[in-house]
Amino acid sequence: MDRDRILKQLLNSSETLVMPDAFDPISAKIIEYAGFSAIQCSGYSYAISKGYESENSIDLKTNLGITKSIVDSVNIPVMADGEDGYGEGDTFKHTIKEFINIGVSGINIEDQIHNVEHENLRIIDELDMLDKIKDANKIKLDLGKDYFIINARTDALLSFNNRKDAQKVAIDRANKYLEAGADICFIAYAKKLDEVKLLSREINGPISIAAGLPYNIQEFSINDCIELGIARVSLPTFMILSSIEGMVRSLKEIKSTGNFNESIKDINLLCNSGMLEEILSSKK
Questions:
Q1: Fewer CB within 10 Å, N- or C-terminus of the chain?
Q2: What is a single molecular function from GO for this protein (predicted)?
Q3: Is 64 helix (H, G, I), strand (E, B) or coil?
Protein backbone atom coordinates (compact mmCIF):
# COMPACT_ATOMS: atom_id res chain seq x y z
CA MET A 1 0.00 0.00 0.00
CA ASP A 2 1.36 3.44 -0.89
CA ARG A 3 2.24 5.84 1.89
CA ASP A 4 -0.38 8.44 0.94
CA ARG A 5 -3.14 5.91 1.41
CA ILE A 6 -1.62 4.74 4.70
CA LEU A 7 -1.55 8.28 6.11
CA LYS A 8 -5.14 8.87 5.00
CA GLN A 9 -6.25 5.69 6.75
CA LEU A 10 -4.34 6.57 9.91
CA LEU A 11 -6.00 9.97 10.11
CA ASN A 12 -9.44 8.55 9.38
CA SER A 13 -9.17 5.85 12.02
CA SER A 14 -10.66 6.20 15.48
CA GLU A 15 -7.19 6.33 17.05
CA THR A 16 -5.14 9.48 17.65
CA LEU A 17 -2.16 9.63 15.29
CA VAL A 18 0.97 10.79 17.15
CA MET A 19 3.58 12.24 14.81
CA PRO A 20 7.03 13.10 16.22
CA ASP A 21 9.00 15.63 14.28
CA ALA A 22 12.09 14.65 12.27
CA PHE A 23 14.79 17.15 11.37
CA ASP A 24 17.12 14.88 9.38
CA PRO A 25 17.33 11.26 8.15
CA ILE A 26 18.68 9.74 11.37
CA SER A 27 15.97 11.36 13.51
CA ALA A 28 13.40 10.04 11.02
CA LYS A 29 14.87 6.54 11.22
CA ILE A 30 14.73 6.67 15.03
CA ILE A 31 11.05 7.67 14.92
CA GLU A 32 10.32 4.69 12.67
CA TYR A 33 12.44 2.36 14.82
CA ALA A 34 10.54 3.48 17.94
CA GLY A 35 7.32 2.26 16.37
CA PHE A 36 5.57 5.45 15.27
CA SER A 37 3.44 5.20 12.13
CA ALA A 38 4.13 8.59 10.53
CA ILE A 39 6.53 11.53 10.64
CA GLN A 40 5.95 15.29 10.73
CA CYS A 41 8.53 17.81 9.50
CA SER A 42 9.08 21.29 10.93
CA GLY A 43 10.82 24.27 9.45
CA TYR A 44 11.66 25.41 12.98
CA SER A 45 13.41 22.12 13.78
CA TYR A 46 15.27 22.39 10.47
CA ALA A 47 16.46 25.86 11.47
CA ILE A 48 17.68 24.68 14.89
CA SER A 49 19.50 21.71 13.34
CA LYS A 50 21.40 24.12 11.06
CA GLY A 51 22.23 26.50 13.88
CA TYR A 52 19.96 29.27 12.63
CA GLU A 53 18.21 31.61 15.05
CA SER A 54 15.09 31.90 12.94
CA GLU A 55 12.89 29.60 10.86
CA ASN A 56 12.84 32.38 8.28
CA SER A 57 16.34 31.29 7.25
CA ILE A 58 14.93 28.06 5.79
CA ASP A 59 13.99 28.81 2.19
CA LEU A 60 11.96 26.54 -0.08
CA LYS A 61 14.99 24.88 -1.67
CA THR A 62 16.49 24.02 1.72
CA ASN A 63 13.14 22.80 3.03
CA LEU A 64 12.63 20.54 0.01
CA GLY A 65 16.15 19.14 0.28
CA ILE A 66 15.88 18.19 3.95
CA THR A 67 12.35 16.88 3.57
CA LYS A 68 13.30 14.67 0.61
CA SER A 69 16.21 13.20 2.56
CA ILE A 70 13.75 12.30 5.33
CA VAL A 71 11.22 10.77 2.92
CA ASP A 72 13.96 8.69 1.25
CA SER A 73 15.28 7.38 4.57
CA VAL A 74 12.12 5.71 5.91
CA ASN A 75 9.22 3.47 4.92
CA ILE A 76 6.46 5.34 6.77
CA PRO A 77 4.48 8.41 5.60
CA VAL A 78 6.02 11.87 5.96
CA MET A 79 4.08 15.13 6.21
CA ALA A 80 5.93 18.25 5.06
CA ASP A 81 5.98 21.71 6.59
CA GLY A 82 4.94 23.85 3.65
CA GLU A 83 4.99 27.06 5.71
CA ASP A 84 2.64 29.53 3.96
CA GLY A 85 3.45 28.02 0.57
CA TYR A 86 6.30 30.53 0.24
CA GLY A 87 4.05 32.96 -1.57
CA GLU A 88 0.78 33.45 -3.37
CA GLY A 89 -0.76 32.46 -6.70
CA ASP A 90 1.55 30.60 -9.07
CA THR A 91 4.34 30.59 -6.48
CA PHE A 92 2.09 28.79 -4.02
CA LYS A 93 0.95 26.29 -6.66
CA HIS A 94 4.59 25.60 -7.59
CA THR A 95 5.38 24.92 -3.93
CA ILE A 96 2.60 22.35 -3.57
CA LYS A 97 3.72 20.55 -6.74
CA GLU A 98 7.34 20.51 -5.59
CA PHE A 99 6.47 18.89 -2.27
CA ILE A 100 4.21 16.31 -3.89
CA ASN A 101 6.99 15.46 -6.35
CA ILE A 102 9.51 14.63 -3.60
CA GLY A 103 7.17 11.99 -2.19
CA VAL A 104 5.60 13.47 0.93
CA SER A 105 2.15 12.14 1.84
CA GLY A 106 0.76 15.40 3.17
CA ILE A 107 1.59 19.01 3.83
CA ASN A 108 0.95 21.68 6.45
CA ILE A 109 -0.15 25.01 4.96
CA GLU A 110 -0.46 27.88 7.41
CA ASP A 111 -2.39 31.13 7.41
CA GLN A 112 0.39 33.21 8.91
CA ILE A 113 2.77 35.20 6.76
CA HIS A 114 6.17 33.52 6.40
CA ASN A 115 9.39 35.53 6.86
CA VAL A 116 7.83 37.84 9.45
CA GLU A 117 9.44 37.99 12.88
CA HIS A 118 7.52 36.06 15.54
CA GLU A 119 6.51 39.10 17.56
CA ASN A 120 4.97 40.59 14.41
CA LEU A 121 3.04 37.46 13.44
CA ARG A 122 0.06 38.21 11.21
CA ILE A 123 -2.50 35.95 9.61
CA ILE A 124 -3.61 36.41 6.03
CA ASP A 125 -7.13 37.24 4.94
CA GLU A 126 -9.47 34.31 5.46
CA LEU A 127 -10.56 34.24 1.80
CA ASP A 128 -6.93 34.06 0.67
CA MET A 129 -6.38 30.99 2.84
CA LEU A 130 -9.53 29.35 1.54
CA ASP A 131 -8.24 29.90 -2.02
CA LYS A 132 -4.94 28.23 -1.06
CA ILE A 133 -6.77 25.18 0.29
CA LYS A 134 -8.85 24.92 -2.89
CA ASP A 135 -5.75 25.35 -5.09
CA ALA A 136 -3.85 22.68 -3.15
CA ASN A 137 -6.75 20.25 -3.51
CA LYS A 138 -7.03 20.88 -7.25
CA ILE A 139 -3.30 20.32 -7.72
CA LYS A 140 -3.26 17.04 -5.81
CA LEU A 141 -6.21 15.73 -7.82
CA ASP A 142 -4.68 16.89 -11.13
CA LEU A 143 -1.54 14.94 -10.20
CA GLY A 144 -3.52 11.83 -9.30
CA LYS A 145 -2.69 12.13 -5.59
CA ASP A 146 -6.21 11.60 -4.26
CA TYR A 147 -5.07 10.47 -0.80
CA PHE A 148 -2.59 13.32 -0.27
CA ILE A 149 -3.36 15.13 3.01
CA ILE A 150 -3.94 18.88 3.17
CA ASN A 151 -3.42 19.99 6.78
CA ALA A 152 -4.62 23.59 7.06
CA ARG A 153 -2.95 25.36 9.95
CA THR A 154 -4.31 28.46 11.63
CA ASP A 155 -2.13 30.71 13.77
CA ALA A 156 -5.08 32.75 15.00
CA LEU A 157 -4.45 31.89 18.66
CA LEU A 158 -1.27 33.96 18.61
CA SER A 159 -2.58 36.76 16.42
CA PHE A 160 -4.86 38.58 18.89
CA ASN A 161 -4.14 40.10 22.28
CA ASN A 162 -7.41 38.86 23.74
CA ARG A 163 -7.28 35.07 24.04
CA LYS A 164 -11.06 34.58 23.91
CA ASP A 165 -11.26 36.59 20.70
CA ALA A 166 -8.36 34.56 19.33
CA GLN A 167 -10.13 31.31 20.19
CA LYS A 168 -13.29 32.42 18.39
CA VAL A 169 -11.33 33.30 15.26
CA ALA A 170 -9.35 30.05 15.38
CA ILE A 171 -12.52 27.98 15.70
CA ASP A 172 -14.29 29.88 12.94
CA ARG A 173 -11.33 29.58 10.60
CA ALA A 174 -10.83 25.89 11.34
CA ASN A 175 -14.43 25.12 10.49
CA LYS A 176 -14.23 27.10 7.26
CA TYR A 177 -10.93 25.48 6.27
CA LEU A 178 -12.45 22.04 6.74
CA GLU A 179 -15.52 23.04 4.75
CA ALA A 180 -13.23 24.28 1.95
CA GLY A 181 -11.66 20.84 1.60
CA ALA A 182 -8.85 20.60 4.14
CA ASP A 183 -8.49 17.02 5.38
CA ILE A 184 -7.59 18.18 8.87
CA CYS A 185 -7.00 21.49 10.64
CA PHE A 186 -4.00 22.22 12.87
CA ILE A 187 -4.70 24.85 15.52
CA ALA A 188 -1.25 26.09 16.50
CA TYR A 189 -0.28 27.43 19.93
CA ALA A 190 -2.89 25.62 22.07
CA LYS A 191 -1.64 26.22 25.61
CA LYS A 192 -4.05 24.72 28.15
CA LEU A 193 -6.06 21.52 28.41
CA ASP A 194 -9.29 23.52 28.69
CA GLU A 195 -8.40 25.23 25.42
CA VAL A 196 -7.84 21.88 23.71
CA LYS A 197 -11.23 20.73 25.04
CA LEU A 198 -12.88 23.86 23.65
CA LEU A 199 -11.31 23.38 20.22
CA SER A 200 -12.28 19.72 20.17
CA ARG A 201 -15.87 20.56 21.08
CA GLU A 202 -16.42 23.51 18.73
CA ILE A 203 -14.62 22.43 15.56
CA ASN A 204 -16.67 20.20 13.30
CA GLY A 205 -14.05 17.85 11.96
CA PRO A 206 -10.63 16.33 12.60
CA ILE A 207 -8.10 18.60 14.26
CA SER A 208 -4.42 18.49 15.07
CA ILE A 209 -2.77 19.78 18.24
CA ALA A 210 0.94 20.33 18.91
CA ALA A 211 2.13 18.92 22.25
CA GLY A 212 5.39 18.71 24.18
CA LEU A 213 6.31 22.35 23.53
CA PRO A 214 7.89 24.56 26.20
CA TYR A 215 4.66 26.51 26.69
CA ASN A 216 2.35 23.49 27.01
CA ILE A 217 4.46 20.48 28.02
CA GLN A 218 3.25 20.77 31.64
CA GLU A 219 -0.34 21.67 30.71
CA PHE A 220 -1.59 18.58 28.87
CA SER A 221 -0.30 15.22 27.72
CA ILE A 222 -0.65 13.05 24.65
CA ASN A 223 -2.99 10.86 26.67
CA ASP A 224 -5.22 13.88 27.37
CA CYS A 225 -5.51 14.42 23.61
CA ILE A 226 -6.24 10.74 23.04
CA GLU A 227 -9.05 10.85 25.62
CA LEU A 228 -10.54 13.84 23.78
CA GLY A 229 -10.42 12.02 20.46
CA ILE A 230 -8.00 14.49 18.83
CA ALA A 231 -7.23 13.10 15.36
CA ARG A 232 -3.55 14.02 15.30
CA VAL A 233 -0.93 15.12 17.82
CA SER A 234 2.35 16.48 16.51
CA LEU A 235 5.54 16.88 18.55
CA PRO A 236 7.18 19.77 16.69
CA THR A 237 10.39 20.20 18.68
CA PHE A 238 10.61 17.17 20.96
CA MET A 239 13.21 15.27 18.93
CA ILE A 240 15.56 18.19 18.29
CA LEU A 241 15.37 19.55 21.85
CA SER A 242 15.85 16.10 23.38
CA SER A 243 18.87 15.56 21.14
CA ILE A 244 20.45 18.88 22.08
CA GLU A 245 19.82 18.31 25.79
CA GLY A 246 21.42 14.85 25.61
CA MET A 247 24.50 16.13 23.79
CA VAL A 248 24.96 19.08 26.16
CA ARG A 249 24.60 16.82 29.21
CA SER A 250 27.13 14.28 27.89
CA LEU A 251 29.69 16.89 26.88
CA LYS A 252 29.39 18.71 30.20
CA GLU A 253 30.11 15.41 31.96
CA ILE A 254 33.22 14.84 29.85
CA LYS A 255 34.41 18.42 30.38
CA SER A 256 33.94 18.35 34.15
CA THR A 257 35.01 14.78 34.97
CA GLY A 258 37.31 13.67 32.17
CA ASN A 259 35.59 10.28 32.04
CA PHE A 260 32.57 8.57 30.49
CA ASN A 261 31.01 7.05 33.60
CA GLU A 262 27.50 8.43 32.98
CA SER A 263 27.55 7.65 29.27
CA ILE A 264 29.08 4.16 29.18
CA LYS A 265 25.83 2.28 29.71
CA ASP A 266 23.87 4.18 27.06
CA ILE A 267 26.62 4.04 24.43
CA ASN A 268 27.27 0.34 25.02
CA LEU A 269 23.57 -0.40 24.72
CA LEU A 270 23.34 1.50 21.45
CA CYS A 271 26.44 0.02 19.85
CA ASN A 272 26.66 -3.50 21.31
CA SER A 273 23.02 -4.53 21.22
CA GLY A 274 22.62 -4.18 17.48
CA MET A 275 20.25 -1.24 18.00
CA LEU A 276 22.29 1.19 15.90
CA GLU A 277 22.60 -1.24 13.00
CA GLU A 278 18.88 -1.93 13.13
CA ILE A 279 18.05 1.79 13.09
CA LEU A 280 20.38 2.49 10.18
CA SER A 281 19.12 -0.43 8.10
CA SER A 282 15.43 0.41 8.57
CA LYS A 283 14.92 1.56 4.96
CA LYS A 284 14.14 -1.54 2.90
A1: C
A2: lyase activity
A3: helix
